Amino acid sequence: MVQVSRREVSRISLAERALLTLQRFLHVEANSGVVLLLAAAAALIWANSPFAASYQAFWHLPLSIELGDIIVSRSLHFWINDGLMTVFFLVVGMEIRREIHEGALSTTDQAILPVAAAAGGVIVPALIYLSLNAGDPAQARGWAVPTATDIAFAVGVLALLGRSIPVNVRIFLLALAIIDDVIAVLIIAFFYSGGLQFGGFIVAALGILIALGFQRIGIGSAFPYVLPGAVVWSGFLIAGAHPTLAGVVLGLMTPVRPSPFREDPLDVLSRVSQELRVSDAIDRKDSKSLETSLRDLKLARREMLPPVVRVQASLHPWVAYSVMPLFALANAGVTLTGFDSSEAAQSVTLGIGLALVVGKPIGIVGATWLAIRFGWCRFPSGVSWAGVLLVGLLAGIGFTMSIFIAMLGFTEGALLNAAKLGVLAGSVVAAALGLSWGAIYKFRLQEPRQ
């Protein structure tokens, strides 16, 4: 009879939990794509209804936060885009950290394919956009808008094709989208942050040191980290960098290993099980002892998961079903009536649309071909050129991150409106093409082999 140690049991349990975490992540992303679509549709209807004026007025209502004599008053739009979206970037940072530790980016062999594909999916769309807009510096600032992929929408559309799509194709899309997010974060940090103030980075560094101190003394609960998180966020804001980058920094700092156990979880389970079996014999006066044991068991179960998995699993549904739809509702309201028909606006819209619909698949498939051709990597099991093309088409769904970058790149209302229209139109066309090709790909997979 094969003996299995407690450590091996714990390791198997953690592996199963990691797989369940990935499945849960994909499930939440797929469902949130529907919520995002509804929020975007509501924003478009509101912005083009007889109540269009109230759309802009509502999101620019002032919202003040008071702390003693300190009063910070900003628009509702600011608190959503620069405040709540920090939580979105926190989840992105933790997902990147987890993928680097144990996921698709954990080894060079696994990472080369999605990294190469993502690089092609950034470079080619940027070149297509600049080929139409490089002549005007104001228009050229939107070069990064079509380089991003919206994970929620892309995974949501892929989910519509059913479970017959190979698992490794789904993982390839997820890994590529995560690398896209990494590149987008770097682009925001280096190209859309101006007039940097060194003093702000000192404040941010202080917040990081506080967070590291909390980790050092073994604080496992997420709530205390709100304080250093707020300090880091304020530091980036003072420095002139986009404050949402604080979320990425803190996400990348999240520990990937569980806290040391004060008592082996299996010992806790054994002890509590024994107490439950004799619970009928326990007097009412001893019930507190049983409650304490149950609380210990709950804590042990929590501590078996590393913080990067546990905190992300807790925050992800809130981000997917609240933060991102709220962002879409506040920013997707493009006014279609009286749209600016100037050459500059048309060029921005066309450049973003073409870059998403054409540039993304060409860049991803082309870069993948080069990586395979030169022997840098090979396809995982179940991934074929048809699957790569499907991923390339779905990666053209930009939406959340693309609109976010557009708002950083364009200060002029007409060009910003044109950029949003390009993102929405390009994302819709990319989704339609992805679904169409996906149906063909799915049919070919189900054909009996001769």
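The record above closes out task 2.4. Task 2.5 opens with a second protein, given below.
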Amino acid sequence: MIFELIIAIIIVRYLQKSMNTKTNLPNWNIVLTYIMYAAVILLVSYALFHAARPVTKWFSHALLLYLIYILYNEKVFKEARQVLLAIAPFILLSVFSDILQLTDKNQYSTLKSLIDSLAGFAILWMIAMWLITNKQKKALEKEKIKTQAEAEQKTIMASMKDELEVQVAQRTAELTKQKEELQHTLEELKATQSQLIQSEKMASLGELTAGIAHEIQNPLNFVNNFSDVNAELIDELNAERLKPKDERDEQLENEILNDIKENEQKINHHGKRADAIVKGMLQHSRKSSGQKEPTDINALCDEYLRLSYHGLRAKDKSFNATLKTDFDESVQDVSVIPQEIGRVLLNLFNNAFYAVSEKRKVESEKLNGESSRFEPTVSVSTKKMEGKVQICVKDNGSGIPQNIIDKIFQPFFTTKPTGEGTGLGLSLSYDIIKAHGGELKVETGTGEGTEFIILLPL
């Protein structure tokens, strides 16, 4: 009897503590508190009032059966039904024993030993189920903690996800804006690059034109001089013919006529020379068709060497240089775009003359304006190789420093002062030679000059 009431008090405390009824189930917490108080009162009454024990015992049975009913019937106590399985056999056996003792004492006496044995098994069952329940409870608590942690983690992840989505959206908007700005900048750079390339082409055309103007001046001077001489000879011939017949000198007249004829031949020769120079200028300045055609490389090199030289002479009358050519006569016509290869040669010759001109100035400054022994020299040579033709443009200038040798073919890189070079000449030349399936290489040594080597397929 006392054991049953102690069990009731323990179960009530267990339910209140494990299920936190005070907070989660306040109404049921009051009911359980009343049950516990009732169990305490019955326990005290059973201990103090012997005469009231039979009544106290049945109230105790009623209290425990009510507790079993609550655990079985109420859904809120579903998690605590393991307790019901633990105490139900013992409580029911105790109730059955008391009923049997009250109704049939003889039968009770017969079955007492069996009932006591069953009570012992019921107590063992209750202890085992209690331990199992505690173990499961701990496992459930761990699982609950784990679930809560996962839920918290999911909440944190969801919050981070939302935050990341906002950041990604902001970053995407920034990148989109940067992309648009870069696209706009790229378009401006492309336009600027096109303008610079056109500027470089026009600069080369200007230098070519200066050379042609200087070159064409010679045949024009011859034409003018011989025309003036012919005019004087014709005046002399007319004067001779106005004399009386017996005073005229026929031999002088014939000599004057022969001189006029020779002069006309020279005028014709230099006129054709001027015509060839003009055609060459038009050939260079007109837009390239992009079609390759058989071209005399030796003649092309010689022509552009002299045009480049005269172009520099037109800007600096004091400049003089030695021009050397070494052409391989076995080099036949090569299939190239002559305007493009001419532009490459003109750029290389201009650079070579610029290099030797700068070195001449440096040498002159070292000697305080006195003439130095340095002789500016630019040479060009061709050589037929296996399946290729090699063109070498060499100067005896100051050379290219080794720390920038890898940059000279990069667009916009130049060693010339601001305003004197765009940095596109060698870059364009490199691209043109590559487009022809050839190679453009450089060999240089500081203070020893520079040699550019063009290899073109035959």
